Amino acid sequence: GFEDSVLICDEVDPILNKILIDNGLKVSYEPEITPEQIIEKISTFNIVIVRSRTTITKEMIEKADNCKIIARVGVGLDNVDQEAAKTKDIRVINAVEGAMNAVAELVLGLMLSLARQTSRGDRAIRNQQWLKKELKGTELRGKYLGIIGLGNIGKRLGRLARALNMNIIGYDVVPIDEEFAKEVGLMKADLNTLLQSSDYVSIHVPLLDSTYHLLDAEKMSTMKKTAKIINTSRGGVVDEDALYNALKNGTLGGAALDVFEKEPAIGTKLAELDNVILTPHIGAQTKEAQSLAANVIAEKIIQILRG
Ligand code: NAD
Fold first, then answer.
1. How far is the centre of ligand 1, averaged over its atoms, from the C-alpha of 151 (Å)?
2. How far is Cα 95 from Cα 76, in angstroms, rounded to an integer?
3. Distance between CA 243 and CA 249 in Å, rounded?
4. What is the 3-state secondary structure (H, E, C) of the chain?
5. End-to-end alpha-carbon separation of the chain, Å?
6. Nearest-angstrom CA–CA distance, 83 and 92
7. Selected catalytic residue, list 263, 272, 288, 299
8. What is the ipTM of this complex?
């Protein structure tokens, strides 16, 4: 077995602990650890593992003199300072496979809920109101779904939505997988055309300098008045103030957000609006996704240690 020591900074599926320990690694499982404590002890670890709660900062990495691997049990790497890791020759790994189906299924559920306003109906009944007349919905069949970013999650969503007979429009900055495009009858478009033509727009890009506020007030103003935005990527990709204004003024039809510019998004003014569905960053929060990601990370770590 290996002798390396591992610091796990967030709550992860127990299978990860088990596989690492079975391979002889010394694991410190500290899902409540604070940033100050990480800075204090990071130098004694060879491997550092995080999920979403912890951010690995430049300051931490500067102290991580024995660290070989930083692993994120998930997809987005925006909570790890990758530049700093590079300068210290630390490998940064993630688990792209885990969340793919979980996030795509969440988006499907959010679209269905936006179309029929199930959240609003539920809230109303709890408030002794029967909104049957008000809640005349629409159907997803035949509607245009614009997917921004056709990586793992975007493609999975495209396949699921195609099964509901939606028309799929796609935009990416890299060439789109041809097999996927054929399978769903994809209409490739530039971002402006996608935004103008879609009834639903779902975003699946990473948060980068180039994707920060990718959907801003100007872009939103080109969309259909009835269009709905679903964001399960990262909060910073959508300008939340602009979204609030568009929804409030009726220049957009609705939105469903799983991610926010500031999380936890308790107190967000978006909660004032009835045409919005808010979920607390649960995209990858399924048993299946967490256990798959934990297995993938454990295997990657062991492979790297084997050389
Ligand atoms: P991926 O890397 O497989 O796909 C991302 C795609 O976005 C790539 O094809 C890339 O070329 C494209 N892209 C990059 N910049 C773009 C731009 N400016 N315009 C259009 N396309 C662009 O990633 P994925 O596994 O599909 O995940 C997508 C994102 O979803 C992740 O980066 C992560 O931030 C987020 N995510 C959220 C949750 C959640 O809990 N809500 C869970 C997992 C992932």
1. 6
2. 9
3. 10
4. CCCCEEEECCCCCHHHHHHHHHCCCEEEECCCCCHHHHHHHHHHCCEEEECCCCCECHHHHHHCCCCCEEEECCCCCCCECHHHHHHCCCEEEECCCCCHHHHHHHHHHHHHHHHHCHHHHHHHHHCCCCCCCCCCCCCCCCCEEEEECCCHHHHHHHHHHHHCCCEEEEECCCCCCHHHHHHHCCEECCHHHHHHHCCEEEECCCCCHHHCCCECHHHHHCCCCCCEEEECCCHHHECHHHHHHHHHCCCCCEEEECCCCCCCCCCCHHHHCCCEEECCCCCCCCHHHHHHHHHHHHHHHHHHHHC
5. 13
6. 10
7. 263
8. 0.99
Q: How far is the CA of 119 from the centre of ligand 1 (A)?
A: 27
What pLDDT does residue 34 have? 98
Regions of the chain where pLDDT drops below 70:
none
CB 194 less than 6 A from any atom of ligand 1? no
Choose the residue to mutate in 52, 55, 233, 257 for probing ligand 1, maximizing ligand atoms within 8 Å of C-beta.
Answer: 233
pLDDT of residue 98: 87
> Which pLDDT value is given to residue 97?
84
**Sheet holding 69-72: strands in order across?**
26-29, 5-8, 47-50, 69-72, 91-94
